[in-house]
Design brief:
- It contains 5 helices and 2 strands, in the order αβααααβ.
- By secondary structure, the protein is mainly α.
- It has helices spanning 2-6, 18-33, 38-41, 44-50, 63-78; strands at 8-9, 80-81.
- The protein starts with a helix and ends in a 34-residue tail after the last strand.
- The protein has a two-stranded antiparallel ribbon.
Length: 115
C-alpha cells in the first residue's frame, strides 16, 4: 500500500474533462431512449415490436468505445506518476559572472621578460 501514497497527478486539472463526458453520455442515453414520439402513445410492449432488428447501417463506433478512449486520454493528459520530482518551472536559476582582471599592472615587469 506504500506505493499508493506516492501516486499523484502532475496536471490534475485535465481530469475536469471527464465532466463534459458525463453530461454528454447522459444526454445521449436520454435521447436514445426517447428517439421518437411514439413512446408516449404506444404501450412499451407494443413499441418494442415496431422496432426492426436491423434498423439501418451503423456508421459510428459504439458509445462505450468513445467513452473509454475519452477517459484514457484524460487520465494520460493528467500525468499520473509515483515520483515527486521538483518542477523546473518553479526553480530560480541565477546567472554567474566570472571577472578576471587583465589590466597591465597584473603583468610581470618588463625586466623579467625573456625573448
Amino acid at each position: 500500500m506504500m506505493w499508493l501514497n506516492e501516486f499523484h497527478f502532475l496536471r490534475p486539472w485535465w481530469l475536469l474533462t471527464l465532466i463534459p463526458l458525463t453530461v454528454l453520455f447522459i444526454a445521449l442515453i436520454y435521447l436514445n431512449r426517447h428517439r421518437s414520439g411514439w413512446q408516449q402513445v404506444l404501450a412499451p410492449h407494443l413499441y418494442q415490436h415496431l422496432l426492426t432488428a436491423q434498423g439501418g447501417v451503423r456508421n459510428r463506433p459504439p458509445l462505450y468505445l468513445v467513452a473509454i478512449c475519452w477517459i484514457l486520454a484524460s487520465v494520460a493528459l493528467a500525468g499520473p506518476t509515483w515520483e515527486r520530482l521538483p518542477q523546473p518551472v518553479y526553480q530560480l536559476h541565477t546567472g554567474k559572472v566570472v571577472v578576471m582582471d587583465m589590466s597591465f599592472p597584473c603583468a610581470p615587469p618588463m625586466s623579467h621578460r625573456t625573448g
